[in-house]
Amino acid sequence: MEATDRFSERRRVAEVDFGTAYRGFLAGGGEILVKRLGMKTCPALRTRFSDELRNMGRLRHRNLVQLRGWCTEHGEMLVVYEYSPARLLSHLLFRHGGLRWHHRYNIIKSLASAIHYLHEEWEEQVIHRCITSSAVILDSGMNPRLGSFALAEFLARNEQGNHHVVVDKNKSVRGIFGYMSPEHMDSGEATAAAADVYSYGVVLLEILTGEPAVDFRRPEVLLVHKLHKFEQSKRPYEDLADRRLDGGEINKSEFIRAVRLGIACTRSDPTRRPSMRQIVRILDGHDEWFVKNGLRKETGVKWRKRNASSLSHVRRMQALGIH
């Protein structure tokens, strides 16, 4: 209660499913995010709450945000997470540009390790469904922690309005636009690991280019669309590098490997994307996946067909003046 100043209005940061999120400050230092949920709302609330706690409380990886605690009291549920808005990856990438190359490559590798843990190393497979640069918190050593599940969606939805939530009741589509794979946009389903691989690939490209997944100031709007056009142009991969990076500090082989990986992860056809296990190996310098699978380009016609839902969504937002 004291951490959030008794849930004062000035500490409220957003409305979330079934309740409200508040920013809190601990007496010993540090920040937290407290989700205050009304327990009497509906049975679905109790189910979602218990599922989230059961899964998050058991996950253990150095690059995953940890659940700090929870309680039920006076007809309410309170869930407490680690949180630091000034240390969000998106905040540092798109506002400060203060990430050196070795920090960026470490973030790329560490996130891959965390998602690989969720997909293949925990006792049951966990599909994250909301991997974005605003769901990643960096510690003082620039080591990333990926927010989990509802927290990830909260962070992405409330990072200064930079992200657009897609909610299509006709298709039951829900997600963060720009990070959703074509099959997720088409069917509303993100139940396969390949959808997480795609989202991870978008974040990887953001880290390399310093550009957000969706930017209406770009002719292409979508970063993956820009990448598709870039690939067709046959320009050198180095041209994609964030201009704020000192060219002398970039490890050229790491950068080229990462660009090729970003292309592979964001292929429109999910069967042509690598698994997270393969991604971890690639980032460790084992490039045999590229030798075996190649990087056959997608034609413009095929790309537009597979990404028709995303391109249509861009046109609708432009028509509505949503930028």
TrEMBL record:
Question: What Gene3D superfamilies does the annotation carry?
Answer: Phosphorylase Kinase, domain 1, Transferase(Phosphotransferase) domain 1
What range(s) does the Protein kinase domain occupy?
7-290
PROSITE patterns given in the database record:
PROTEIN_KINASE_DOM (PS50011)
- Keywords tagged on the record: ATP-binding, Nucleotide-binding
| Superkingdom of the source species | Eukaryota
* Record's keyword annotation contains Nucleotide-binding: yes
Question: What is one GO biological process annotated to this record?
Answer: response to other organism
Family annotation (Pfam families):
PK_Tyr_Ser-Thr
PANTHER family tied to this protein:
PTHR27007
This chain's protein is named Protein kinase domain-containing protein
Q: What is the originating organism of this protein?
A: Cuscuta campestris
Query: Which lineage do the record's taxonomy fields give for this organism?
Result: Eukaryota, Viridiplantae, Streptophyta, Embryophyta, Tracheophyta
